[in-house]
Design goal:
The complex is a heterodimer of chains A (about 290) and B (about 325). Chain A has helices at about 25-45, 80-115, 115-130, 135-145, 150-175, 180-185, 190-230, 240-250, 255-285. Chain A has about 290 residues and is an all-alpha fold. In chain A, α3 (about 115-130) packs across α5, α7 packs antiparallel against α9 (about 255-285) and α8 (about 240-250) runs antiparallel to α9 (about 255-285). Chain A is elongated, with a radius of gyration of 22 Å. The termini of chain A are close together. Chain B is of the alpha/beta class and about 325 residues long. Chain B has twelve helices and twelve strands. Chain B has helices at about 45-50, 80-90, 95-100, 105-120, 125-135, 155-165, 185-200, 210-215, 235-240, 245-250, 290-295, 315-330, and strands spanning about 5-15, 25-30, 35-40, 60-70, 70-75, 90-95, 170-175, 205-210, 220-225, 230-235, 300-305, 310. In chain B, strands 6-7-8-3-9-10-12-11 form an eight-stranded mixed sheet, with helices on both faces. In chain B, strands 2-1-4-5 form a four-stranded antiparallel sheet, with helices on one face. In chain B, β4 and β5 (about 70-75) form a beta hairpin. In chain B, α4 runs parallel beside α6, α6 (about 155-165) packs parallel to α7 (about 185-200) and α10 (about 245-250) runs parallel beside α12. Chain B is globular and about 65 Å long. Classes of the chains: A mainly alpha (about 290), B alpha/beta (about 325). Chains A and B meet through α6 and α7 of A and α2 and α4 of B.
């Protein structure tokens, strides 16, 4: 079961991540970090010290100071405020991708695995076709058609991530439907749909959700990448990927802080999501079935 | 004969990739309130036979013949009638209760779900019935809120039996219900099954490879070999005076407490592979009494003279009667 996940970076397997008692401090650290980030995003309007879009060109590229603890960027906007407010779009985007890909992917995988036959062939081949397109390329395509904004890249990446979820779901369903309790429900007069939705789905859900957590991290990177290319969120919206893009000129002027901080935020959040997701997946796999 | 709870006539079942039918013309009846045992070694088709009663067939299987439960042909039913049959008329008890009960659901959910969803029974009534059935199998109400992992194997098999009784079925199919249990629990479960069959007036088809168990619980016995019924008859007569060399050999290979010490007589060879086509008697290759006719001609089912209700499929049955009887009882 451990290997059921389609994409797993293997961070939670690092030996250094466990102390002598077997408790994983890395996992707890990551969980705590994610808690802080989410809290930040939720409370952003109340805790950000400045208006994230207030431009103060006279003060551009200033270093950390009392009023601007993390400095300002090339347009004189407060980096701390933009980081905090940016957490909202930076988390909301991947959330949309994960929700979309999980719901649609589970539906497709469930139908393919449960029904089998021609439906399985059609669905599996169609979703595998999506593998042929790199996710970012698909997103670029859709954004270039529908224009920038959060919705288009989220849907594009949702489609790009769908095959990972549907393939995992399908393989889990195939294994699950062979288990005797499914037959036992059949002979009690339950219809296939009832068994599938009421029993098989809850039994495979933990593994799928663990994969979705890991996908969250990847989606965050992809969306930040799109923003960096100027194709994600609109120019003025605070967003970590966008901040890296805006900070490019600051790096060239020798003031890298406004670009490095959002980079760090992205990397740390992604790593944290991966560690937490993998840990959950491992716990599910170890569960006595 | 239309009053029979279960009537299987000429059931043949083909699987893709098999050179001969996995079931080759099964005739079997279970009367009202009757216990019938179906015995045979692994791969003889006994489980498939019992599963076909609920049309729980392996993918790709094709069938001929009829399987009638209370006069209705299961093999020709539409999906709705089939679900009604499975909810109300016939129930199955599986070999391994731990595998056959969804580990994520409480026992109460498991027991009542079928009635709530498929018979539109209000939850309170379904729960009340579940409590009564649990009581009938000797379990308390407390079990309702527990998870399968919290119960022992024997208790779970009782839950399984209770769930089989939930729909008030006319027929219970028990597919080696005691194989996964230890011996003392086995005796309890078998006694319970027999008890409940009497009390609720259901027919019972008991699939097993344990001859002693079959003899103890059943009114009539069918002995299966390679997808065919080798011999059938009332339990006592069949085990005392086997008329088919296979039955006799099976009896000889069963350990007995009262028999003299010594090595058990194993049946030489293997059951015929499904990849082979068979002409003649399927047991011929392993039968010590086989002659030319056995390998060439399929023995028809013939009544045993002077014994009612007995059929045997052996060319030499009459000739061998004394020999077989002697070897079986070992006295």
């Amino acid at each position: 079961m451990t290997d059921a996940l389609v994409r797993r970076p293997g961070l939670a397997r690092l030996r250094i991540s466990k102390d002598r008692t077997g408790r994983s401090w890395l996992y707890l650290l990551c969980l705590g970090f994610l808690g802080v980030v989410v809290l930040m995003a939720v409370l952003a309007p109340w805790i950000s010290p400045h208006d994230p879009n207030a431009v103060d060109l006279g003060n551009a590229l200033a270093g950390p100071s009392g009023t601007h603890p993390l400095g300002v960027d090339g347009s004189g906007r407060d980096t701390a405020s933009r980081l905090i407010t940016g957490a909202r779009t930076s988390l909301l985007g991947p959330l949309g991708v994960v929700v979309f890909s999980t719901v649609a992917g589970v539906a497709v995988g469930l139908a393919a695995g449960w029904r089998g036959g021609w439906l399985d062939s059609v669905l599996s081949r169609t979703t595998e076709l999506v593998f042929a397109f790199p996710g970012l390329l698909l997103a670029l395509l859709i954004v270039s058609i529908y224009g920038e904004g959060l919705i288009a890249p989220v849907i594009a990446l949702g489609i790009a991530y769908l095959p990972y979820v549907s393939r995992l779901t399908r393989s889990l369903v195939l294994a699950e439907r062979e288990r005797p309790y499914v037959e036992a429900y059949q002979v009690q007069g339950h219809s296939g749909l009832q068994i599938c939705l009421r029993h098989v789905l809850p039994n495979i859900a933990p593994v799928v959700l663990a994969q979705s957590t890991i996908n969250f991290g990847y989606a965050l990177i992809d969306l930040a990448g799109l923003s960096f290319l100027g194709l994600g969120v609109p120019a003025l919206t605070p967003d970590w990927g966008r901040m890296v893009f805006d900070g490019e000129s600051a790096i060239q002027s020798g003031y890298p802080l406004s670009a490095i901080l959002p980079c760090a935020a992205i990397v740390l959040t992604v790593v944290a999501f991966n560690v937490v997701g993998e840990r959950w997946a491992d716990q599910v796999a170890r569960r006595d079935r | 004969m239309s009053t029979d709870t279960l009537q299987i006539q000429g059931l043949r079942l083909h699987l893709p990739g098999a050179a001969r039918p996995v079931l080759a013309g099964i005739d079997l009846t279970v009367g009202e309130r009757e216990t019938v045992a179906l015995v045979g070694e692994s791969g003889s088709g006994k489980s498939l036979t019992s599963r076909s009663v609920l049309r729980l067939l392996p993918p790709g299987a094709t069938t001929e013949g009829t399987v009638a439960v209370q006069g209705e042909n299961v093999l020709a039913m539409d999906a709705k009638a089939l679900r009604r049959l499975r909810t109300h008329t016939a129930a199955m008890i599986f070999q391994d209760p731990r595998a056959a009960i969804n580990p994520l659901r409480r026992i109460g959910d498991f027991l009542t779900e079928s009635l709530r969803l498929n018979a539109d029974l209000p939850e309170a009534e379904a729960t009340e019935r579940a409590v009564r059935m649990l009581d009938a199998v000797g379990l308390g109400e407390r079990v309702l809120g527990q998870y399968p992992g919290q119960l022992s194997g024997g208790m779970l098999q009782r839950v399984m039996i209770a769930s089989a009784l939930m729909g008030d079925p006319a027929l219970i199919l028990a597919d080696e219900p005691t194989t996964a249990l230890d011996v003392t629990t086995q005796a309890e479960v078998v006694g319970l099954l027999d008890d409940l069959r009497e009390r609720f007036g259901t027919g019972l088809l008991f699939v097993t490879h344990d001859l002693g168990l079959a003899a103890a619980i059943s009114d009539r016995v069918y002995v299966m070999y390679a997808g065919r019924i080798a011999e059938t008859g009332p339990a006592e007569a069949l085990f005392e005076r086997p008329r088919h060399p296979y039955t006799a050999a099976l009896l000889r290979s069963t350990p007995r407490l009262d028999a003299p010490q010594g090595r058990l007589a194993a049946i030489k060879g293997q059951p015929p592979s499904l990849k082979l086509e068979l002409t003649g008697c399927p047991f011929a290759a392993r039968c010590p009494f086989a002659t030319q006719v056995c390998t060439e001609e399929l023995p028809p089912h013939r009544p045993v003279p002077e014994e009612s209700g007995r059929l045997v499929a052996c060319h030499h049955s009459e000739k061998l009667a004394d020999q077989l009887a002697g070897s079986a009882t070992d006295d």
